[in-house]
Design a protein that fits this description.
The strands form 4 sheets. A two-stranded antiparallel ribbon has the order 1-3. It is globular and about 75 Å long. Strand 5 and strand 6 form a beta hairpin. It has 2 domains: 126 residues; 111 residues, Orthogonal Bundle (Cytochrome Bc1 Complex, Chain D, domain 2). By secondary structure, the chain is mainly α. Bound molecules: heme C (2 copies). The site of one heme C (HEC) has 22 residues, from helix 7 and helix 8. InterPro entries: Cyt_c-like_dom (IPR009056), Cyt_c-like_dom_sf (IPR036909), Cytochrome_c-type_DH (IPR051459). It holds the Pfam family Cytochrome_CBB3. This is Cytochrome C oxidase, cbb3-type, subunit III. Keywords: Heme, Iron, Metal-binding, Signal. One of its GO terms (molecular function) is metal ion binding.
């Protein structure tokens, strides 16, 4: 009796100690990964068009502030409230409140791994693990460009208020992604299948929204994500209503099996699907090329078909 009480006491003390350590440690810090930074040559118009498309379809979803219409930051609305009050920071060119003073290598490191220039792990933000080097370069070129979306804006970013749960998660399962050994070339537009795989898993990361849930996605091995491309991840539209991502596999009844390439093109380019206008957060890729649509179509029709019932 006495020994078991003693053991219980020790276990309780250890648990309390671990909880205190997590609370004090907060969101962990890591060594900032050294991304090979090549001197950026002057951006070409094609690079800026691609970079703009990547930033609008991805970064802007979280970082765009509707009041300033710049990337001066916004509260995160789509995350589970138990994770705390979180904010996508100001990433305009402002040197104090934005990323004007960050180097390309520091930006590349946070975008690829989630580790900020001060070493603190940046939570929630997706990691562009499979993005090609040239696409990353285009993205950074756009962030440095004269586009109105990224011009310096002095909106301060409120302090993050992560919950105890988020602190536990980031001290256990939520980790930065490793830097994959480079170089990472962009595949050629032909064969369409390999190109499409890159677009769906790397450049546009469609799989991150279109698989079963963010929790079960496998950033390093996308195809091993639960319900890969079968849809079902839950979001909110701009009015706060529930929206679920669609099944993109070739299943003829619940997926895109009966779709034509032209229907996919209209959905991606204009947000007009055969079922009507697509809702937030489905991006509109207004500058997507015919070659890209061809690749995405070929790849989506080739992946294992899943029959899923996604709530309407
Ligand atoms: C799902 C929402 C989301 C998306 C998409 C997203 N971010 Fe973030 N980003 C965040 C959040 C939230 C933080 C802050 C997290 C923290 O402080 O722990 C952040 C932090 C950052 C930071 C660090 C800024 C600072 O001052 O600490 C940079 C730089 C950044 N994001 C750039 C980008 C770029 C570039 C993209 C597009 C490739 C992008 N983000 C896409 C949510 C997002
Ligand atoms: C940020 C998350 C997100 C990303 C990234 C994303 N989607 Fe979507 N997508 C959605 C959501 C949510 C819906 C459902 C919208 C609705 O019901 O109105 C959707 C709808 C669609 C539809 C319409 C299906 C239908 O039956 O009407 C297609 C097709 C589609 N997405 C393809 C893609 C492709 C291809 C990519 C990558 C190039 C992609 N999506 C990237 C979230 C996303």
């Amino acid at each position: 009796m006495k020994t078991s009480l003693c053991l219980l006491g020790v276990a309780l003390l250890l648990a309390a100690g671990a909880a205190l350590a997590v609370a004090l440690r907060g969101i962990p810090h890591y060594a900032v990964p050294a991304v090979a930074a090549r001197p950026a040559p002057a951006a070409t118009p094609a690079q800026l068009a691609l970079g703009g498309q990547l930033v609008r379809a991805n970064c802007a979803v979280c970082h765009r502030n509707p009041r300033t219409d710049r990337l001066s930051g916004a509260p995160l609305v789509d995350v589970f409230p138990g994770l705390g009050r979180l904010y996508a920071p100001n990433i305009t060119q402002d040197r104090r409140h934005g990323i004007g003073a960050w180097t390309d290598a520091e930006l590349a490191a946070v975008v690829r791994t989630g580790i900020g220039r001060d070493g603190r792990f940046r939570v929630i933000m997706p990691h562009a693990v499979h993005l090609s080097d040239a696409d990353l370069q285009a993205l950074l070129a756009f962030l440095r460009s004269a586009d109105p979306l990224v011009q310096a804006d002095a909106t301060p970013t409120p302090a993050q208020a992560p919950s105890f749960l988020l602190k536990i998660l980031t001290n256990t399962v939520m980790k930065p992604s490793p830097l994959l050994p480079g170089p990472r070339p962009t595949p050629a537009p032909a064969p369409a299948l390999a190109y499409g795989r890159y677009l769906v898993t790397g450049r546009y990361a469609c799989f991150e929204c279109h698989s079963r849930s963010h929790e079960t996605n496998q950033a390093l091995r996308p195809e091993q994500s639960a319900g890969y491309l079968g849809g079902g991840t839950a979001f909110h539209d701009r009015q706060g209503r529930r929206v679920h991502s669609a099944n993109l596999t070739g299943d003829p009844d619940t997926g895109l099996g009966r779709w034509t390439p032209a229907q996919l093109a209209a959905t991606l380019r204009f947000g007009q699907s055969p079922h009507g206008p697509t809702r937030h957060p489905m991006p509109v890729y207004s500058a997507i090329t015919d070659e890209e649509v061809r690749g995405i179509y070929a790849y989506l029709q080739s992946v294992p078909r899943l029959k899923t019932t996604v709530p309407k």
